Amino acid sequence: MTNHFIDLILPIPLQKTFTYSVTEDEVNFLQKGMRVAVSFGKTKMYTGLVFKIHTTAPTLYEAKEINQILDETPIVSEQQLQHWQWIANYYMCALGDVYRASLPSAFLLESETIIYKNEAFTDDVSLEDNEFLIFEALQHQSQLTIHQVAAILGKKKVMPIVNELIKKSAIYIKEEIYETYKPKLVKYVRLHANYNSDASLNALLEELTRAKKQREAVLTFFQLSTTKKPIKAIDLETAANVSSSILKSLVTKNIFEFYHIQKDRINFKGDTNDLKTLNEFQSKALSEIKETFTTKDVTLLHGITSSGKTEVYTKLIQEVLDTGKQVLFLLPEIALTTQIIARLEFYFGNQISVFHSKYSMNERVEVWNNVLENKTKAQIILGARSSVFLPFSNLGLIVVDEEHETSYKQFEPSPRYNARDAAIVLAKIHQAKILLGSATPSLETYFNAQQNKYGFVELNRRFGNVQLPKIELIDVKEKHKKREMNGHFSDRMLKLIQQALDEKEQVILFQNRRGYSPVVECKTCGVSPECPNCDVTLTFHKYKHELRCHYCNYQRAMPNSCAACGSNTLDTKGFGTEQIELELKELFPDFKIGRMDLDTTRGKFGYQKIIGAFEAREIDILVGTQMLSKGLDFENVSLVGVLNADTMLNFPDFRAHERAYQMMVQVSGRAGRSKKQGNVAIQTYNPYHKILQQVSTTNYIEMYKEQLQDRWQYKYPPYYRLIKITLKHRDYNKVDTGVNWLFKALYNVFGEHVLGPTAPAVSRIRNQYIKNIVIKISPKQSLANTKNSVSKIKNTFEAVKDFRPIRFIIDVDAY
User: Which residues in 236-252 are b (16+ Cβ under 10 Å) and which e?
Assistant: First the structure.
């Protein structure tokens, strides 16, 4: 008799798969991509994923049996597994990490998983006996682990029961719940089968002559039923102006009957409208893109801000949908999805699903299943970087909007992937096409397009032929000398704001720091309060009157006197969005000021509320951080102000200039989008800086050539590849000894291509000391061999007893 085995990927940071034994029956049922619950280690239970089914027993250990199979059909596709392997190999991380990052956490139950009762759960869903036992236990205890559930039920196999409860939304597992949607089961009303003929209807109305309200409800029901749509109980109540008890009594009389329809949690209203007709420049761009797609898989669309790239995307999407394939539309920022959803929804109605971290777990599971089953409502997936992990079966096109954005790169936790690059590989696996769009492409992408590796299409007219905004640089140093500054605003900036407000137009002000001020300093002794866990000064948030660390979220009340010398001469230095907002309220008391940063967009609908209010012109001046620079479209904005351009330019990073250029051009692009030319005012201490000059003329090519020259000279991407290795530990000496050993080992292999070891600008975060080493890989050098050498050195490093507790992080293409 042959023994059967399966190799599983477990959601733990280990490189290998693990072999378990299965019975004949199980083998016939199992398929690659199904989940099974297994025990690993002494007591832990995990949800593993079937990676391979075979008959070879493991040599180093005895294969355990599996506990149970959790799926009827695979929930991960063959193409996904291929993509995961590429991510694990390319970004040098464990397959288990990619598995954990890809699946919504509801799919990954383990023995330590904590479950909570969902307060929003209504009793109109029936629970099985075992499910009810757990639900009842949660009435008395606020939380349970899966271990405890097994003890309550007195059986081992509890994962499927917990899964069912999650599906029914009776419980949720450890995760922030932003807002729970109620309408999962919606109550509808229909006429009882007895009243199908006209005669019976007349008799019915006769019967109800005395019960006025009931008669009213029935008549309104007939009016509503002319639309041929199902009628919601609540709609009938409002339309007939009757209470729910009236409907109930009609149901008891067997005149009406209730029925429920399960609604998906995310449903789009709105019919589909025809796509906008493109102008000549857009149609030319569209046909050029299709032309390049005949020979190239990747095309860069370099379209200046407000040139109508979204409209070009929609036409392409429509053509791909017509062939019956799926489309993935990647966006860098959740703030942007809220606006683009509205625009795409207008054309594609309910073919759109959205996937990002602000959705609750149940909603993400739902989207996952819809994509897996290729449902009509998941033909277009709109999402942030994590949506490259969804189980597509026939992808036809990927659009990466604002492809230059740093938000596409994940830095923590592993896998540290770049969604744009991962999407290019995903498209290749599916033989799909990929379009990268940006007004300020990243140097690498533009370089690849110039090298003819990617197709290249330009769109350099704004939609409606509106001119690009007038950009003026304001010399703050000069204004300070002449005493022409009012707080953080120069007289010129205030004059421009006043002009815009007088003309009933809106203003956006950009400041890349949140909070009130980043440093609080004692004037007497010069000491600033610092975070106890990180090497940074605490940021003062005036709104809550507290000091807060933006790295580890440590917070404490703002002191009245200096902790070092006791004097009460505390002064704030530097400024953030909160301070600007307060200054504006004093300068323009009659106008509405809004603020959009991490503090004001916490909840699930935080973005929508602010963007909606600004679009509805309820806010006159919007102050915000870089969230504002990402492709948002407001038609009434005539002025954009950048309050301090220098913080972006003087950053210790080889990309600082490229990023500063992108950020400022993107922010400027928010001005004057619909009718007349907008204005942009940039305050700076150094108006003659070459980057600022290039921004003021929006000269991308000049910036590109100049930066490329520097990159070649100093051996940086796009010519050289970078691998960054970071060591972290609470003990400084340990990290220091470890990093020096590592540097020597790497130097023996790569010579002067190893940079370091260095401490980053913030060298301690959450009490962990940090040291970095960067390896540069020249164009001639094989990437695969380099990675092998690094892996070998890592293994040797981790074999040293003293170094074992140090966290060893590898980040490929780290910048």
Answer: bbeebebeeebbeebee
| CA distance to 54, 537, 605, 810, per residue, from 414 (Å) | 29, 28, 28, 9
Q: What is the pLDDT of residue 204?
A: 78
The model's pLDDT over 222-258, given as tens digits with 9 standing for 90+, comes to 888 776 667 888 888 888 888 888 888 888 888 888 8
Question: What pLDDT digit, counting tens, does each position of 414-436 carry?
Answer: 899 999 999 999 999 999 999 99
User: Whole-model pTM above 0.70?
Assistant: yes
Task: Let me know: does 38 contact 125? Beta carbons within 8 Å.
Answer: no
Nearest-Å Rg of the Cα atoms of the chain is: 30
Largest pairwise CA distance in the chain: 98
Q: Once rounded to an integer, what is the mean pLDDT over residues 736-755?
A: 95
Contact 809, 717 (CB under 8 A): no
How many Cα atoms occupy the beta-carbon half-sphere of 562 within 13 Å?
18
CA distance 80 to 579: 47
Contacts of 21 (CB under 8 A, 6+ apart): 3, 4, 5, 57, 63, 64, 65, 66
**One-letter identity of residue 423:** A
Partners of 510 in beta bridges:
624, 642
Long-range contacts of 551-557 (CB under 8 A, 24+ apart): 551/762, 551/765, 551/766, 552/765, 552/766
Count Cβ neighbours within 10 Å for each residue of 667-682 and write b for 16 or more, e otherwise. Answer: bbbbbbbbeeebbbbb
In angstroms, rounded to a whole number, what is the distance separating the alpha carbons of residues 188 and 562?
A: 65
525: Cβ contacts below 8 Å, ≥ 6 apart: 562, 564, 565, 567
**Alpha-carbon distance 44 to 57, whole Å?**
23
Q: Are 333 and 384 in contact (CB under 8 A)?
A: yes
Beta bridge partners of 573: 519
**Contact yes or no for 796/725 (Cβ under 8 A):** no
What's the confidence (pLDDT) of residue 810?
95
Using DSSP's 3-state secondary structure scheme, residue 306 falls into: coil
| Cβ contacts of 451 within 8 Å, gap of 6 or more | none
**Res 749: pLDDT:** 94
Task: Give the DSSP H/E element, type plus range, for residue 274.
Answer: none
Q: In the numeric block, which tokens belong to residue 70?
A: 């959790």
Three-state SS for 48?
A: strand
C-alpha span between 695 and 658 (Å, rounded): 11
How far apart, in whole angstroms, are the C-alpha atoms of residue 362 and residue 105?
10
DSSP 409: B
Query: Using one digit for the tens of pLDDT, what is the confidence trace for 475-506?
Result: 999 999 999 999 899 999 999 999 999 998 99
Structure confidence by residue, pLDDT tens digits, 539-562: 999 888 999 999 999 999 999 999
Instruction: Report pLDDT digits (tens) over 267-317.
Output: 444 455 677 788 898 999 999 999 999 999 999 999 888 888 888 999 999
Q: What is the arithmetic mean of pLDDT over 173-198?
A: 61
> Which residues neighbour 542 within 8 Å (Cβ) at sequence distance 6 or greater?
516, 578, 579, 582
The pLDDT tens digits for 64-116 are 999 888 888 999 999 999 999 999 999 999 999 999 999 988 888 777 778 88
Contacts made by residues 144-148, CB under 8 angstroms, sequence distance 24+: 144/114, 144/115, 145/111, 145/112, 145/113, 145/114, 145/115, 146/45, 146/109, 146/110, 146/111, 146/112, 146/113, 146/115, 147/43, 147/111, 147/112
572 forms beta bridges with 520
CA dihedral 116, 120, 125, 128 (to 10 degrees): 20
For the record, the structure tokens of 538 come out as 């605490």
Q: What is the 3-state secondary structure (H, E, C) of 654-722?
A: CCHHHHHHHHHHHHHCCCCCCCCCCEEEEEECCCCCHHHHHHHCCCHHHHHHHHHHHHHHHCCCCCCEE
Distance from chain centroid for Cα 721: 26
CA atoms within 13 A on the CB side of 521: 9
